[in-house]
Amino acid sequence: MPLPRAPGCPLSPPAAFxxxxxxxxxxxxxxxxxxxxxxxxxxxxxxxxxxxxLSADTIPDTMKAxxxxxxxxxxxxxxxxxxxxxxxxMMTRDFTFRRTETMRPQIQELVDGFLDDMIAxxxxxxxxxxxxxPLPSLVISLLLGVPYEDHEFFQEKSTLGLDSRSTDExxxxxxxxxxxxxxxxxxxxxxxxxxxxxTRLLTDYxxxxxxxxxxxxxxxxxxxxxGHKTTASMIALGxxxxxxxxxxxxxxxETDDPAVVANLVEELMRxxxxxxxxxxxxxxxxxxxxxxxxRSGDIVLMNRPAGNWDAAFVDAPGRLDADRNSRGHLxxxxxxxxxxxxxxxxAELQIALSSLARRLPGLRLxxxxxxxxxxxxxxxxxxxxxxxxx
Length: 390
What we know:
Distance between the termini: 37 Å
Low-confidence stretches: 65-70
Helix content: 40-55%
Largest sheet: 5 strands, mixed
């Protein structure tokens, strides 16, 4: 894992996933160099994250070496409740639906600014470089209090850390470098507080002893990584999917109904499922999943692209349909570990894609689709560049 995608179908899950869903038991695959049980059916993927016999604590020992003054930080997505919930609740106020709604005018202003610059530069343009990547990078930087001028550094280190070809040691080095950067930033925030999430973590929790400085740093690092790469991939691949389905793009361009825009974004989340690996659990004890015996200590990987294309979840899953109800999709995960930033991601995607459709009615690819290069080797599926014209 991940498997290569079929030539000419870069937005469709590998064809083998259909066979895995229909086969008895689970598929045994190699992931990160170790044997891993792959769960590919929608209902099984929904059940696994809430099964107490499966733990989120799957971090290899070599990846737990990042520390400062011998204090190892906790990684909240990779621990179980109740400690996971305690740490998560410290950040939820910055990602609530109400908080995200207040950010919409600011996000719209940023979207308009990036589109103004891209249009002023004239076609062709690289939608990834000029729009899809800088927008969420700037949004999450502003929310966290990270200087945006350092975005190239954390994008480079995050990319290496999320590359399935990187060894555990290489990932540890990459995470260590960006952790060191964030740790210095946290120290600066203690001296020069601002109106941002890092400052609030320091003031409300580190100062009271409820949170270590190392764990505050790691939590901010995780939000920084997740907050720009995933949304950037969704904007770029979502645009490509809409170009492949011009009737849906026209619908987006012409509608004034925010519910239509919101529903299309949910369908794109289902259709694309950019987190195509990365979500794993380890068995605490022997158990059976879909008729398959899983031994204590075995790794279990959630095959979310396969689950989102399961006919048991939606009819004709290979069709992009803005009118279907995709609200149960697995794009943001499921259970207590589901994406903490999903409200913000939804707002960014809704504003970015609808604005792009309205402002550039003649948008189209500037190169043959066969020349596009996709990032199948990354834990988060993406695309190197998206040359467009209008």
